[in-house]
Amino acid sequence: MSLAAVPVQAASGAPAAGEAILRRQRVRESAARTYARSFPIVPVRAHGMTVEGADGRRYLDCLSGAGTLALGHNHPVVLEAIRRTLDSGAPLHLLDLATAEKDDFTSALFESLPAEFAARARVHFCGPAGTDAVEAALKLMQTATGRSGALAFTGAYHGMTAGALALTGNVAVKEPLPSGGEVARLPYPYGYRCPFGVGGEAGADLAATYVERLLDDPSGGVVAPAAMILEAVQGEGGVVPAPDGWLRAMRRITAERGIPLIVDEVQTGVGRTGAMWAIEHSGIVPDAMVLSKAIGGSLPLAVVVYREDYDGWRPGAHTGTFRGNTLAMAAGAATLRHVAANGLVERAAVVGERMAARLRELAAELPVIGDVRGRGLMLGVELVDPAAEPDACGARPADPALAVRVREACLARGLIVELGGRHDAVLRLLPPLTITDEQVAAVLERLAAAIAAASTGGPTGGSANGSAGAPTVRGNR
Ligand SMILES: Cc1ncc(COP(=O)(O)O)c(C=O)c1O
């Protein structure tokens, strides 16, 4: 669909039916509903980066199912794989039995992984969500090491089930629940809001030194853990890329101490960061990788891939009913191959850099933009209060209220952008890897206009269903 067909107020729809659906959703679905609060729209059709709502409007989708839709909505390659599988009569649900589709997906997955890792890897198919694969990875390493605790980082997001939530940093979602798991929390190298008040490479070096010293301190309070888990770029934590040197330090520190390293690539995988897998930027080889989201080609699929030496599980050690989704495996294999064969990884790197450069120019014009960061097509714009005093690193306080107004102003301009970050003040851009140059221009134009409108205090142009004041805890975090 060309951008010419994506005016803000274009498509036909059924606004009244949409309103009724939204009304019923509000009274029938749980208070924990999340994105539905941020985006009170009823999508009826979607193609590529464009979502058409029942309100008759078209939106450019920069959320992409929280990074799931590497090829955008309903990509022909994905649809063809699904149709072919449906027409073949293959069983759609198969627990963990062997199928040609699973065999092919496993081949496509292993071909996409760094050769050194794939050469000695095993894969375990999990329940179809990232959080279940995180649980599986932790259990695997607990079984292999005979230890129970884990090392995880500030700002981490690993999922919503008990074990994964224990590894997650977000206090707001953890606070109401009984504490779970023994997790030592370590500082993630967040340059803009440096845990050591230093910033830059120096802050990352301190973060690495702190981890090393803490683990070696007999009175440091950290019992030998089953694993360390980290994201190479924190997504929900506010689009914070870890420096490559810090990642290499984590690999060295864990290897030297016999601590398995799990890298959670649920959000960063399949080209998103300008490498097929985010670990490739630093060249580290982890002991396990947790994969989900884009690997299913928009359908639910999650796996843990790990070094064969850790395969000490007994049969049934991590079972589950929905581990054999034939359609997801066909869609996932097609996606992995299409991304690799069509230069989409390289394009994500180039287009992401171009978008980041334009966003940095915008930051020079708009003082509410405190920081622009990211890798590939995983970009974050942190909004701050320009009138407040900066801290020692030059960072001003986050402005979550402004961020909500910007999200609303984006939606009013036909742009879907979600928030994230420690203070819910980071605009997160996760467009599909297939984004066209025309769409890049439209996204940046709409975003700039939305930030300008929202920060001057004028009307955001938001709809009556706007989400200002919605609770700050959303589903993916
Ligand atoms: C890095 C990371 N790990 C794990 C998860 C959990 O995945 P799911 O929502 O499929 O359970 C997410 C979800 O956003 C994520 O970003």
From TrEMBL:
Q: Where is the composition biased (Low complexity)?
A: 465-477
Q: Name one Pfam family in it.
A: Aminotran_3
Pathway given in the UniProt record = Amine and polyamine biosynthesis; ectoine biosynthesis; L-ectoine from L-aspartate 4-semialdehyde: step 1/3
Q: What is its EC number?
A: 2.6.1.76
- Matching InterPro entries, A to Z? Aminotrans_3, Aminotrans_3_PPA_site, Dat, PyrdxlP-dep_Trfase, PyrdxlP-dep_Trfase_major, PyrdxlP-dep_Trfase_small
Against SUPFAM superfamilies, the record matches this protein to: PLP-dependent transferases
What class does this enzyme belong to in the EC scheme?
transferase
Cofactors needed by this protein, per the record, are:
pyridoxal 5'-phosphate
Region listing for Disordered, in residue ranges: 455-477
Which terms are listed as keywords in the entry?
Aminotransferase, Pyridoxal phosphate, Transferase
Q: Which GO terms describe its molecular function?
A: diaminobutyrate-2-oxoglutarate transaminase activity; pyridoxal phosphate binding
PANTHER family reported for this sequence: DIAMINOBUTYRATE--2-OXOGLUTARATE AMINOTRANSFERASE
Q: Which family does it belong to?
A: Belongs to the class-III pyridoxal-phosphate-dependent aminotransferase family.
**What is this protein called in UniProt?**
Diaminobutyrate--2-oxoglutarate transaminase
Upper classification of the source organism reads: Bacteria, Bacillati, Actinomycetota, Actinomycetes, Kitasatosporales
